[in-house]
Amino acid sequence: MVVFAGIRRPKHGPPCDPLDHSDPTAVLIRMDQDEKVLGMDDVRPGRRRMSDGEIMLVEGLEDKGTRNGRFLTLHKRRRRRLSTRGLHECPALLDDLHHGNVKCVLDRVWQWPFNAFTLDTATGGRSLPVLCVHLFHWYGLMDHFKLDVCRIWKFFSLVEEGYHSTNPYHNAIHATDVTQAMHCFLQEKKIREHLSPLEILSALIAAVTHDLDHPGVNQPFLIATSNHLAALYSNTSVLENHHWRSAIGCLLESHLAEEVASVRPELEKQIASLILATDITRQQEFLGQFKGFLEGDGLDMTKPEHRHFILQIALKCADISNPCRPWEISKKWSLKVCEEFFRQGDYERQLNLPVTNLCDRYSTSVPKIQVGFFRFVVEPLYVEWNRFLDTPLSHTLMRHLKRNHSKWEALQQQEVIEETRTEISEAEEVSDTPPESQPRRLSLLTVPRMTSRASDHRRHSVPISTAAFLVPRRESLPDPQRRFTLGPMLDEDDELSLVSSCSSVRSKSGSYTEERPVSSEALVPDLSIASMTSSGEAQRLSSILHGNTAPLAAPANRLTRQQTFPPLQQPQTYVRQRYLSATGDMRGSSSSDSSGERCGENKPLLPKEKENVDPVDAAKLFRKLQSQSLWKRRGSAPVGLPYDASSTSAARRGSVPADTTAIIMASRPQRDEESRRRRRAKKTLRRRSSGGPETFRQKEASTRRRGSLPLEYALTSSVSGRNLKDTMRH
Ligand SMILES: Nc1ncnc2c1ncn2[C@@H]1O[C@@H]2COP(=O)(O)O[C@H]2[C@H]1O
Ligand SMILES: [Zn+2]
């Protein structure tokens, strides 16, 4: 044991032996696979079979083991055991195997090439509580704060439950990933040496709860759809405020709050401040301050405020650390985050809202998004982080970041070439086909979406109800070919994992299921945060959130829980009020941010409206409400602020009337795009018919003109403030 920041903790143990002699299960499994004594299909009904993930994990471990010869003796043991026992006769052994695998992953939890997906598979989807309980033990927090292990487990289970498993990206695995990254940063000497147990406790809880109850859409979307949270937090750090308040809700409900009563105010303050710092729109603010410290008097880590600032930066880095993971892991995260963006774009399209550039699967692509994100968001922060740490870990991060960046750039280039080729072949077709019937082409490297084809046809200018009857969209390449093109980007697993559990999906027979009618409820399937109940309850929630820190009686606990996450079983009479709804009675409730940081006061909310309106009229009603309530909504830009209509994202600010922007944005870019397209096609044809050689540069240039606003624009402006808010904020 060594003493660490006043806490007792075990030393790093030697790397565990995955096929430890005391772990007979692994032996049995290996025999099953190698010698086919027990085929997987032979497992009797009712017995538990190994999942694919478990088999892969064991195979991976075995490969390593058998090559270096460490497990030779096990081969002997294996034979002996097999003759006496079969896996199917003792399914409980699989639990041991589970534990062996989990232990193996956890023993490497301090290493950077950590794969949260592997831990999730090994733990049967419980990576979040497993990792956190492990870390709490590892740091000695259980002993130091005399925490009850059951309450700790309950707390992390609640947190896990609070993440939406239906989100491709903002789910519990992302929380696990960020917490592990935070753990790595906390191990860095410059930081570790000075941290107090309370700071470690706050940092870990903040990391694991930093996106709690994330709805899978960003703040501008919540504002544009008049979500009650936007009003509750005055359109300011809406999600981040909700995340930290949800974290406090879990502390209360698990009764962990009572166990840390002596430090609770400080703990809550730190959690709030750390989570609020993850608001990506505040990146410039933090970066400027960080640079100031590094270039000026430096940071004095003996000062609590400096330590807290570094923890804020550490959490921000951990939150966007996926580009710094090894390529295979990083790529997986990239695909997932883009799929979430694209889903939001689909919702926006269905609600007749202007589609955020970054979220439009038809006009942007994963490599494009990644290149912009790496260049304008991740690198600037990590350059400074590396300057501060300057350790083997930070060098490793930078190495991965650069390598991954180059790979995305190469993929983007490849995409440009593919697009150019397709453009030429399309141009040839154009000469025979009237322009009106030309389909919109998908980028070759977009995340595949296995939803109804019908939704692909829908355009802003086409009424939702008629969209389903349009002629199917043609693609430049037949499906199998598209798949092939996606080869370097996606493996089978990626594709499958991107299937939305909520969208229409391809049925087993291969046909596509019907698209659901458009209603705000259907659009965001798991938006539990919007499940506010009656105004009375909302008021009680408000009082709990804003300062009533007295120990809660049971009903109050239940209330917090109910407001934060969807009740497991909703009463029959429960009326959901999402998007279009807010509670009139809440007007009087007051709000104060106990952290004193960027948390807005309560403003009068929209008139009470039920969400279960006629789905066909949802968009109409939505626009009406928008215009009715606009004067009440506060935004960071005044309502009448002139804005650049060419920027979709700018147009989507909550403070700008959604109805007018929807009209402008729905018609303008499309018309422009169409006419540009025709001009381009004609030009290409002219060039080709005149027999003039077309250089690559020319091709590239013509391709670049395609689509709506280039990502670079959004991101560059975002760095200076405005568009980043609208695009990146999740
Ligand atoms: N690989 C990525 N590509 C694009 N955006 C990302 C990527 N990783 C993280 N982000 C964005 O950065 C944001 C950081 O905070 P969030 O986790 O709330 O939401 C995240 C996403 O919106
Ligand atoms: Zn996050």
Layout of helices and strands, plus pairs?
Layout: E1 2-4, E2 7-9, H1 24-35, H2 52-67, H3 72-84, H4 93-106, H5 116-122, H6 127-138, H7 141-144, H8 149-162, H9 172-186, H10 189-192, H11 197-209, H12 219-224, H13 228-232, H14 238-253, H15 256-259, H16 264-276, H17 283-295, H18 304-319, H19 327-350, H20 366-389, H21 392-430, H22 464-467, H23 479-486, H24 492-497, H25 520-523, H26 535-545, H27 554-564, H28 618-629, H29 648-651, H30 658-689, H31 696-704, H32 711-719, H33 722-728
Helix pairs in contact: 1-3, 6-8, 6-9, 8-14, 9-11, 9-18, 11-16, 11-18, 14-16, 14-27, 16-18, 17-20, 20-21, 20-32, 21-30, 21-31, 26-27, 32-33
Bound molecules: adenosine-3',5'-cyclic-monophosphate (CMP) and zinc ion.
The site of adenosine-3',5'-cyclic-monophosphate has 15 residues, from helix 19 and helix 20.
Domain PDEase: 94-415
Protein name: Phosphodiesterase
Active site: 170
Descriptive report:
Its cofactor is a divalent metal cation. This protein has about 725 residues and is mostly helical. It has a domain at about 15-105. About 55% of the residues lie in helices and about 0% in strands. It has helices at about 25-35, 50-65, 70-85, 95-105, 115-120, 125-140, 140-145, 150-160, 170-185, 190, 195-210, 220-225, 230, 240-255, 255-260, 265-275, 285-295, 305-320, 325-350, 365-390, 390-430, 465, 480-485, 490-495, 520-525, 535-545, 555-565, 620-630, 650, 660-690, 695-705, 710-720, 720-730, and strands at about 1-5, 5-10. A two-stranded antiparallel ribbon has the order 1-2. A hairpin with a 2-residue loop joins strand 1 (about 1-5) and strand 2. Helix 6 (about 125-140) packs antiparallel against helix 8 and helix 11 (about 195-210) packs across helix 16 (about 265-275). The protein starts with a strand and ends with a helix. Residues about 1-45, about 60-85, about 435-670 and about 680-725 have low confidence and may be disordered. The structure holds adenosine-3',5'-cyclic-monophosphate and zinc ion (ZN). Adenosine-3',5'-cyclic-monophosphate (CMP) binds near residues 278, 319, 322, 373 and 730.
